[in-house]
Amino acid sequence: MPQPDVRLDRVTKRFGDVVAVDDLSLVVEHGEFFSMLGPSGCGKTTTLRMIGGFEETSEGTIYLGDADVTDLPPFRRDVNTVFQNYALFPHLTIYENVAFGLRRRKIPDGEIRHQVATMLALVELPGYERRRPHQLSGGQQQRIALARALINHPRVLLLDEPLGALDLKLRKQMQIELKRIQTEVGITFIYVTHDQEEAMTMSDRIAVMRHGRIEQLGPPEDLYERPSTDFVAGFLGVSNLIEGEVAGRDDRFAAIRLPDGTVLRAPSASVNGAPRVRVGVRPEKLRVLALTDEASSAANGLNTLDGVILDASYIGVSTQYLVEIASGQRLVVYAQNIETSGAAEAHPDGQRVRLTWRPEHTFVIGAAPMTPSDEQPEGEIHA
Fold first, then answer.
1. CATH code of the domain containing 330
2. 143 and 50 share a domain?
């Protein structure tokens, strides 16, 4: 089995009395696009800086491959870092910026020309050798920073929110480009971001961090579809969470009884034995039906909740409904606008409706609420 590229063994970082990273263990496999995601102050950037050697650990050990690099300075670690501000040399041409690492290693000029040309082609900026950084757009500067970092073929590339300074449209374009580049070069990327969409779009695995610890780690689909805590459920998009208690289970589904007596079904594997739980469902999994006999028939075998539409907002690709159920709780629904030109008109405010969804789209987490100190992400993932 291949040696992991990065391994953190019980790493802790303290700044005075503040514990920024708390007894963190982590393995990053060779060739992964691995992201650390979380709100400001969760310890993700500090962890990245310790891997790169820019911060010393208070406790624990950091391995690159099978080598203990805990006490090595940055220049003796086989990693490179791309920062948010790119850190290009303004007085040098693009050619010299990209060639900088090779010149320090005293690589022959002919080989430098070949490798610089190869890297500029990789980031789709051939012919830019004679320009200077101020003559490039933000996205182009970011690509040059990538080329400069990759030209030495490091074991690991560390990226500290490198898209943060770009506008939304360019950021989305660069997400696709970053993943393409990582796939082509095959180098392990460790990416730090507070943006859920960035992490979900590019990553093979994501570590959602909170208070210096990993709250949940796994592929993007697992984290989104099967969050293990309410923090992860709320950080990766919008979740509807409803209090209930386990009323029984079989090999396939568990029955969750709500306070008003409604029984919902969820996959048995998601129920860990706690009597009181929270049932979760993502807004795009819900279907809104007018409360008629047809709705009752259509809901056969599905989870159902009846309620009243408080607000319908047309937001282009979908209509967002706010529905109040019997308990007084308000649920968010995203209905795709594929059948009508103005789906918001289909269910007006005040209409009684039935919400339905497939039991397998239900997830279950513990009943502990999110603490008030947890920051919420800046954006949301919409269907």
1. 2.40.50.140
2. yes
